[in-house]
Specification:
This protein is of the alpha/beta class. Helix content is 27%, strand content 17%. α1 runs parallel beside α2 and α1 packs across α9. The chain binds S-adenosylmethionine and iron/sulfur cluster.
Length: 343
C-alpha cells in the first residue's frame, strides 16, 4: 500500500454515473457494499482470527470523512445497501457519527444501512444507533450455551444476550448469524434454533469458510448445509423457500412464524448471484470475499486522486471481479484474514 499523504477535500463536481450501475464481466450487478470500520475486535473467535492478532496502525484506518467519501462514490454507482462491519464496529469511537454521516446518502439512492456486530458492547449503544438511522442489525451468536460460546469466541455470552435484548427494545430488527464448526458447536444447532424461534428472530447458519489463519481450516470441520438440515429435520418439518439474491437459502419450519437460513458458501456457493463488494478499514476494495488481493482505493484517495479517478478504479475493479469461490474452492493465500475483510 502506498504511503499516506494529506487527504484532499472531496471534490464536489458531479460524478459520471454509469447508466447500468456497477456490473462485472460475468453479468452480475452490484447493489451491496460492506464497509469495515476497524480490524480490531474485543472477541477472538477461533474461526476468524488468531488469539494474538497484529492490528493495523490506527493511522491507516479510514477516517469518518474518508468512509463517507468512498461510500458516496459507491452509492452514486448504484449501491443501495451498506453494511458496517469489522473487526467489531462498536469499537469505533465515532461509529454514531459515521451512521449520521451516511444518512446524507439516502437522497442519492441509499436504501438500507445495516451493521454486523458481536453485540457485546451493544446494550448501551442500541437506542442511539436506532435514533441515528441504522435500519437493522445482524448479530453473531454461535451458541446459547455459555461453555460452547466461550470455546468458540474466547468470550462470555451474557453481554451478547443483553445486547440482543437492547436492540429489540430499541426497535432495531435483528437477525442472528451462527458459524457452525464440527465438534465445537454443532450440538448447538437445535438449541440455537429453539432460542431464536422463541424470540421470533430470524437465524442463519453459516458454513465455516477457509478465511481464517493459514493452515487452520480443514474441510472436515465444515458442517454442511445438508448436515444442518438433517439436524433440523430431526425435530421440525422443513421446507425450502425460493432463493433470491440473499446468500442464505431460506427454510420454513412448519408452524413457526420465523424460519432459518443457511449460508452454504462451501457446499453450495451462491457466487452466480453475488451482488456485493467490500471495503476494508483502510479502504481496500475486495470485489470477492475470496479475492487474493484488493484495489487500494483508500491509499489512492490519500495520495490525492479525485472522485472521478476513484470512480474509474471502482468500476474497473468490479468489472474484473473473479467468478468466485465456486470456480476456485479452497483456502486463499493472502495476508488479510476474516476480521480484516469484514465477513
Ligand atoms: N465482529 C462482527 C461479528 O462478529 O458479527 C462483525 C465482523 S465478523 C468478521 C462478520 C461475520 O463473519 C460474523 O457473522 C462471523 O461469524 C463471520 N465469520 C468470521 N469468520 C468466519 C469464517 N471463517 N467462516 C464463516 N464465517 C465467518
Ligand atoms: Fe471479532 Fe467478529 Fe471475528 Fe468474532 S467473528 S473475532 S466477533 S470480528
Amino acid at each position: 500500500m502506498t504511503a499516506a499523504v494529506a487527504n484532499p477535500a472531496p471534490t464536489t463536481r458531479p460524478l459520471p454515473v454509469a447508466a447500468v450501475g456497477l456490473r462485472d464481466r460475468h453479468g452480475r450487478g452490484k447493489r451491496k457494499l460492506r464497509i469495515s470500520l476497524t480490524d480490531r475486535c474485543n472477541f477472538r473467535c477461533t474461526y476468524c482470527m488468531p488469539e494474538h492478532p497484529q492490528w493495523l496502525p490506527r493511522s491507516s484506518l479510514m477516517t469518518r470523512d474518508e468512509v463517507l467519501r468512498l461510500a458516496r462514490i459507491a452509492v452514486l454507482h448504484g449501491i443501495t445497501h451498506i453494511r458496517l462491519t469489522g473487526g467489531e464496529p462498536l469499537l469505533r469511537p465515532d461509529l454514531l457519527d459515521c451512521v449520521h454521516d451516511l444518512q446524507t446518502l439516502r437522497p442519492l439512492g441509499l436504501q438500507r444501512l445495516s451493521m454486523t456486530t458481536n453485540a457485546a458492547l451493544l446494550a448501551p449503544a442500541a437506542k442511539a444507533l436506532a435514533e441515528a438511522g441504522l435500519d437493522d442489525l445482524n448479530i453473531s451468536l454461535d451458541a446459547v450455551d455459555p461453555d460452547a460460546f466461550r470455546a468458540l469466541t474466547r468470550r462470555e455470552v451474557a453481554p451478547v444476550l443483553a445486547g440482543i435484548n437492547a436492540a429489540i427494545d430499541a426497535g432495531l430488527p435483528v437477525k442472528l448469524n451462527a458459524v457452525v464448526l464440527r465438534g465445537r458447536n454443532d450440538e448447538q444447532i437445535l438449541p440455537l434454533t429453539a432460542w431464536a424461534l422463541a424470540r421470533g428472530l430470524p437465524l442463519r447458519f453459516i458454513e465455516y469458510m477457509p478465511l481464517d489463519q493459514p493452515g487452520r481450516w480443514q474441510a472436515d470441520d465444515v458442517v454442511s448445509e445438508a448436515e444442518i438440515l438433517a439436524r433440523l429435520r430431526s425435530v421440525y418439518r422443513v421446507e425450502a423457500l425460493p432463493r433470491g439474491s440473499d446468500p442464505a437459502t431460506r427454510y420454513q419450519l412448519a408452524g413457526e412464524a420465523t424460519g432459518v437460513g443457511i449460508i452454504a458458501t462451501v457446499s453450495n456457493p451462491f457466487c452466480a448471484s453475488c451482488d456485493r463488494i467490500r471495503l476494508t478499514a483502510t479502504g481496500e476494495l475486495f470485489t470477492c470475499l475470496f479475492a487474493a488481493s484488493g484495489t487500494p482505493l483508500g491509499a489512492r484517495m490519500r495520495a490525492g486522486d479525485d472522485d472521478a479517478t476513484l470512480s474509474s478504479l471502482l468500476r474497473n475493479a468490479v468489472w474484473h471481479k473473479q467468478a468466485g469461490y465456486a470456480a476456485a474452492p479452497g483456502p486463499v493465500e493472502r495476508p488479510i484474514l476474516m476480521h480484516g475483510i469484514g465477513g
